[in-house]
């Protein structure tokens, strides 16, 4: 077990795990969430494969033009196409390495998860058996194994987050029909874990909207969802319009994702965002 732990960490010199203290000091360790990690992994792999297919199609198209240009001997255009092809080929190799690294991390994560589940089941079985010196020693060893597997899972989750990329979130405005009147001012607060985006907007006389910021970059997180809060500003007072949460698994896509969320329960005010991964 100690050899497998050291090999797991030696292969993953990417990002330290979330800060946590030893359980021996009575502190809480960050709790891995295998089901959530599986959802993110599947969405991430699907998105990466979409990018790979798109660039492979681009490479095939450029290669076809490259052959036609070579026959027509337009040298300047030929060399320009050749540079484009080399650039796309490099990016495809980069994507393939990215996918293989993500798969390697998740495979290691699943192994540690199964080891932890096995040690947990054995610990429960030993705890129900008659208390003897041997059973107590086995319980201590199993408890240590559960701790080590949990730490490794936390470490791998931190390493996997490095490969999630960036979300570019654009503000597209509020939709509220009769609820939005000229002169109304709103504040939108978007949170993803510790990342925050606070922006203010105003409804103009021609029903257009002006916002003090239009785009924000968020780093995806394995465990946190987007939390969006909208408040209406009336002088010195603020009135809460609504709070919603939004899962990020659907954002791992090659195409910009248009997000329309109901801020009020009846959907009388909606928020429109665009997310580009």
UniProtKB/TrEMBL annotation:
Leader peptide range in chain numbering: none
Superkingdom assignment: Eukaryota
InterPro entries: FAM65_N (IPR031780), RIPOR3 (IPR026136)
Domain FAM65 N-terminal per the UniProt entry, residue ranges: 2-277
Similarity-based family: Belongs to the RIPOR family.
Name used for this protein in its record: RIPR3 protein
């Amino acid at each position: 077990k100690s050899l497998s732990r050291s090999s797991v960490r030696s292969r993953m010199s990417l990002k330290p795990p979330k800060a946590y203290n030893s359980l021996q000091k009575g502190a809480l360790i960050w709790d891995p969430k295998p089901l959530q990690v599986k959802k993110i992994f599947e969405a991430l792999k699907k998105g990466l494969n979409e990018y790979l297919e798109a660039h492979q199609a681009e490479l095939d198209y450029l290669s076809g033009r490259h052959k036609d240009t070579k026959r027509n001997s337009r040298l300047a255009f030929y060399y320009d196409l050749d540079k484009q092809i080399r650039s796309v080929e490099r990016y495809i190799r980069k994507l393939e390495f990215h996918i293989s690294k993500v798969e390697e991390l998740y495979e290691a994560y699943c192994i540690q998860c199964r080891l932890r589940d096995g040690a947990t089941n054995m610990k429960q079985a030993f705890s129900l058996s008659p208390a003897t010196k041997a059973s107590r020693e086995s319980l201590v060893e199993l408890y240590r194994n559960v701790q080590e597997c949990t730490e490794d899972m936390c470490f791998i989750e931190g390493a996997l987050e490095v490969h999630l990329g960036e979300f570019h979130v654009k503000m597209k405005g509020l939709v509220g029909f009769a609820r939005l009147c000229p002169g109304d001012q709103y504040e939108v607060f978007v949170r993803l874990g510790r990342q925050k985006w606070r922006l203010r907007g105003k409804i103009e006389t021609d029903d257009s909207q002006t916002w003090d910021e239009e785009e924000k970059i968020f780093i995806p997180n394995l465990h946190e969802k987007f939390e969006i809060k909208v408040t209406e500003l009336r002088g010195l007072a603020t009135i809460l319009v609504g709070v919603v949460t939004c899962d990020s698994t659907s954002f791992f896509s090659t195409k910009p994702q248009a997000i329309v969320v109901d801020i009020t329960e009846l959907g009388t005010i909606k928020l429109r965002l665009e997310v580009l991964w």
